[in-house]
Backbone:
């Protein structure tokens, strides 16, 4: 069990590097750092010409490949050791499936030129892979009795709220990825409006500006939904440390997400802040996924009564 815990933590942290590495590739324009060949760079085992873009792209490929091996080992070991837990086998399959899907989409983007709207799916797939691995890790620690979530029952109306918030979050994540892939990060020089001196002057917006402002509007709505859901669930489940602590953390993460989103514009796309922005939404979605898992348990319990 000790090995499984260490391996699950390593896989989760490694997936954080995969996610931020993918964001780094996009934000630094390093997607073509290895040319149009995959998995080799420019068709060479040892590249003859080293550029910063090549180093970033190749590093991302190496980290992703290494994590693929670790995730497969984790999935097999979890299946064998704690496969009796209801969700483990499905999560083991999903963690490997979506990691492979992520790699194939990344490879296709390198070998064949892809539409920006298709490329934006890549981050969403990576997010599902990360969430699956994070949930496996939480289940490992739950089995080891590091915290108690089995006794928690979430009411149906609150389960529906969690499901809806999670689906909407995924759509907002897609819109954010679309902003990056269409290079629309800095098409609006002001915040929160594209032009604070004329906020309603929409007639001359370019496609990129509509994408940027669409993402800001969607993110603003997400903040309001997450805020109201957090306050309601914290109030209704004061007896549960898992619900109370989890939703306080969710509220903190969505607040930080809004702050870093504004700072990206105000700092003219500071790379560190941009990567932190991608990391925070990944953690936010991962936590929501855990509450989806807990909600599904409550729904199963309700059906059996």
Residues:
């Amino acid at each position: 069990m000790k090995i499984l815990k260490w391996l699950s933590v390593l896989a989760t942290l490694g997936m954080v590097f995969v996610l931020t590495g993918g964001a780094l590739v996009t934000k630094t324009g390093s997607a073509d750092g290895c040319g149009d060949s995959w998995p080799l760079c420019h068709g060479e085992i040892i590249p003859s010409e080293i550029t910063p873009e090549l180093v970033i792209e190749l590093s991302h490929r190496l980290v992703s490949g290494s994590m693929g091996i670790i995730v497969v080992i984790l999935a097999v070991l979890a299946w064998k050791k704690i496969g009796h837990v209801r969700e483990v086998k499905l999560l083991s399959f999903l963690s490997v499936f979506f990691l492979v899907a992520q790699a194939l989409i990344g490879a296709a983007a390198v070998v064949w030129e892809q539409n920006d709207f298709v490329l934006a799916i890549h981050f969403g797939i990576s997010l599902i892979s990360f969430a699956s691995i994070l949930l496996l890790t939480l289940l490992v620690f739950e089995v080891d009795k590091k915290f108690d979530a089995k006794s928690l029952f979430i009411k149906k109306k609150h389960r529906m709220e969690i499901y809806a918030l999670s689906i909407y979050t995924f759509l907002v994540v897609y819109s954010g990825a679309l902003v990056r892939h269409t290079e629309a990060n800095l098409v609006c020089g002001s915040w929160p409006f594209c032009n604070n001196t004329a906020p309603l002057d929409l007639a001359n917006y370019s496609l990129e500006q509509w994408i940027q402002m669409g993402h800001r509007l969607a993110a603003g709505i997400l903040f309001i939904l997450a805020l109201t859901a957090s306050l309601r669930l914290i109030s209704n489940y004061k007896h549960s440390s898992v619900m109370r602590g989890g939703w306080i953390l969710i509220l903190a993460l969505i607040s930080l997400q809004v702050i870093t989103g504004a700072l990206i514009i105000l700092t003219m796309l500071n790379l560190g802040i941009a990567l932190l922005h991608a990391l925070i939404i990944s953690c936010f979605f991962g936590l929501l996924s855990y509450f989806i898992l807990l909600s599904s348990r409550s729904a199963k319990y309700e059906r059996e009564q």
Summary: Residues 1-146 form one domain. The chain has a mean pLDDT of 86. Residues 127 and 282 are 6 Å apart (CA to CA). The two ends are 33 Å apart (CA to CA).
